[in-house]
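Follow-up to my earlier ticket, as requested here are the two runs.
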Amino acid sequence: MLHTVGAVLFALQGVVTALAPQLSTRMVKRMLGENFENTERLEAKPSYLRQIRALGIGMAAAGVAGAVMERVSDDGETGPAETDETSGEERIEG
């Protein structure tokens, strides 16, 4: 359950990052501002914003995939489905 919650939060973070990459740039500016001067004058280039947006899309996809995999494993479907070939029955060839 905890893994599923983490995956969903990761997916939500990815959606926010994909839809509003400016929030990420503000956070980076704030972090840089602790150690450097004049960070308020920094501007993100459009290519950087596109990269951040792509990163957010990837995060959302990974979060959704993680939540789905956790859901499937919680349902007990962790192994391969049993077929005639894997049922353990002996076959006599000859």
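Run two:
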Amino acid sequence: MYDANGYVDYYKYLNSKGGINGGVRVTIFNKRGAFSAEAVISDRVRPGVVSAPSVWWGKLTDDGTNANETTSQALTDIGAGATFYDNLVEVRTAQ
């Protein structure tokens, strides 16, 4: 599935607790930044996990952002690799 505005897999248990329904726009955010995407409720991710699969270009999204807004620019201590694969975020229904 490709959507220029992206989507996030949201664990189905959290849906019942957090009031976020599939198909709605959500804002994914942390202290570094935020992006919006469509919530897809599924069991493809573990409890407590939100996944933004694939890559979509920020310049092609409605709001000019993507998952990179929430990632660190730091490098790993071994090999100076990227640290952008995992980060702590919160999710709320988009305003």
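The only thing I checked on run two: The chain is about 5% helix and 30% strand. Let me know what else you need.
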